[in-house]
């Protein structure tokens, strides 16, 4: 006779990545792990937050750079609403800046997309058992000195505006998206340039890419 101990409940996972092929590959790998079930998939942060609100998974595995609401913003919202959900980042970015921003927002683990498949299971088991997992390469980087994060240098609103600037949007479009006036957006842009000591849009875009606000 089977007992609950013999057959523990499956680890319910929601997976988020804006690349369908990447997401399908990760889902296939997760499907090979005993006791793990991918219950839903999201293509962006907004969709991810909605799915977590309705499904209450045990674990969220999410990319950082996604269109619309990015992974960092989604992690922050999910952590605030559902602190019991384990939030594991699966990213191609390994800079200290990315990792610290993710952790500050509520992530409990960070795994590289080029990690060997066995590490995916190791990360899942670890966040469920101990509450955290950082791949060896990431743990090593966290011990190194780092430059200020984008959140150290800019306000939350400025980060939002910088991301949209780097996506090629004009002041009027940004104003519409954020419910601001174009003049207010222009003032923020000037302050962003002043704080970062960057004098053109191309420079702002390069900074946003380096900090992971937009994809290259």
Automatic annotation (TrEMBL):
InterPro entries named in the record: CheY-like_superfamily (IPR011006), NreC/VraR/RcsB-like_REC (IPR058245), Sig_transdc_resp-reg_C-effctor (IPR016032), Sig_transdc_resp-reg_receiver (IPR001789), Tscrpt_reg_LuxR_C (IPR000792), WalR-like (IPR039420)
Keywords from the named record: DNA-binding, Phosphoprotein
GO terms, molecular function: DNA binding
Domain HTH luxR-type per the UniProt entry, residue ranges: 147-212
Entry keyword annotation includes Iron-sulfur: no
Response regulatory domain segment(s): 12-128
Modified positions (4-aspartylphosphate) in chain numbering: 63
Gene Ontology BP term (one): phosphorelay signal transduction system
Source organism, top-level taxon: Bacteria
Record PANTHER family: TWO-COMPONENT RESPONSE REGULATOR
Listed name of the protein: Response regulator transcription factor
Organism (species): Ramlibacter rhizophilus
């Amino acid at each position: 006779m089977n007992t609950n101990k013999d057959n523990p409940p499956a680890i319910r996972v929601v997976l988020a990545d804006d690349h369908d092929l990447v997401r399908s590959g990760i889902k296939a790998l997760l499907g090979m792990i005993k006791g793990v079930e991918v219950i839903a998939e999201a293509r962006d942060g907004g969709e991810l937050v909605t799915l977590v609100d309705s499904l209450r998974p045990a674990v969220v595995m999410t990319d950082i750079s996604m269109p619309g609401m990015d992974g960092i913003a989604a992690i922050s919202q999910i952590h605030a609403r559902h602190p019991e959900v384990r939030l594991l980042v699966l990213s191609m970015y390994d800079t200290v800046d990315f990792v610290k921003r993710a952790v500050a927002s509520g992530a409990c683990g960070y795994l590289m997309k080029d990690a060997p498949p066995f590490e995916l299971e190791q990360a899942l088991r670890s966040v469920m058992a101990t509450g955290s997992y950082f791949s060896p390469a990431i743990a090593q980087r966290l011990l190194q000195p780092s430059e200020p994060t984008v959140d150290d240098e800019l306000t939350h609103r400025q980060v939002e505006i910088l991301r949209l600037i780097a996506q090629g949007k004009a002041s009027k479009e940004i104003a519409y998206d954020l419910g601001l006036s174009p003049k207010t957006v222009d003032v923020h842009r000037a302050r962003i340039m002043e704080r970062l000591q960057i004098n053109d849009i191309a420079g702002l875009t390069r900074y946003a890419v380096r900090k992971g606000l937009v994809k290259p």
